[in-house]
Amino acid sequence: MVDDRQPLPPAADTEVLEAIPSEPVPDYQVDDAVPPPAQAPEPPVEVADVQATRKSTREAAKSKRKVWFISGGVGLLAIVLAVVVFFVARGRSAPEEPVEVEPVVVTETAPPPTPTVSPVDLPAETAFAQALPSTLAEFALVEAQFHPDWLSQGATEAYALVYSDGSVTVNVIAGQWPSAGAAAEADTGTAAGAGTSSTQWVNETAVFQATSQSPEAAEKIAALFPM
Fold first, then answer.
1. Residue 131 is part of a domain; what is its CATH number?
2. What's the rounded Cα separation, in Å, for the pair 97 and 77?
3. Does residue 130 sit in helix, strand or coil?
4. pTM (2 d.p.)
């Protein structure tokens, strides 16, 4: 068997390597390191600057809110105007129906007629006599006296009255009885004559009779008489 291994180098070579001196490694100290460059000191923050910054921020926020408010108001106004224009245009587009105007009837009321003659006084001052009217529309009392015929029929008071408007006269007899029954049973007859018209009415204890050549005048006095 053949041995292929090489022989070791001679020991002398090893000693030569050990004899080569090695250069010393310099010993750097930490203190010899280069110091970092110095930084400039920051300026102190003043309180006034902080307050000014806060005020500026608040004013900016307020200005932004104002802009939003104005923008919102303008938008709302635009919507309202659009709605108004829409309804106005819609109303104009629809044909307008003619409006019928009813004629106004003006009724002129004539002033109530008044007598053209002055009334006279009644011959008594009793309650019944004072209740008799001295004027009736255009008629005025022009004569007043007692009426003996009705007094003889049992009336407690009786008066013959003449009313006139200046051209037409109406004779009225007014009497009062002690009771309504006596007034209803009284035989007063009628004062109407040829060419005259007479109307009579009873008011509880009082009896009245109007006679005139004008039936219209007699009816008018009877209608206007307050008793």
1. 3.30.200
2. 32
3. helix
4. 0.53
In a domain, 13, yes or no: no
Whether 19 is covered by a domain: the verdict is no
| Beta-ladder partners of 57 | none
Neighbours of 149 (CB within 10 A): 14
- Mean pLDDT value across the chain: 77
**Pairing verdict, β 197-203 and 157-164:** unpaired
Whether residue 144 is found in the same domain as residue 209: yes
Residue 182 lies in a domain: yes
Side chain identity at residue 160, one-letter code: A
Number of structural domains the chain divides into: 2
Residue 99 has what pLDDT?
A: 78
Domain that holds residue 56: 46-92
For residue 99, give Cα distances in angstroms to 96, 102, 164, 205. Answer: 9, 9, 53, 61
Q: Position of tokens 């200005």? A: 63
Q: Which strand ranges, in their side-by-side order, compose the sheet holding 135-136?
A: 135-136, 139-146, 157-164, 169-176, 206-212, 197-203
Taking the C-alpha atoms of 140, 161, 200 and 189 in order, what is their torsion angle to the nearest 10 degrees? -160
pLDDT digits (tens, 9 = 90+) for 39-69: 655 555 455 555 666 666 666 666 666 655 6
How many residues does this entry show for the chain? 227
Nearest to 113 by CA among 224, 227, 210: 224
- Whole-Å CA distances, 142 to 120, 121, 161: 6, 9, 8
Q: Answer for the pair 161, 172: CB distance below 8 angstroms, yes or no.
A: yes
Q: Are residues 132 and 183 in the same domain?
A: yes
Does residue 77 sit in helix, strand or coil?
A: helix
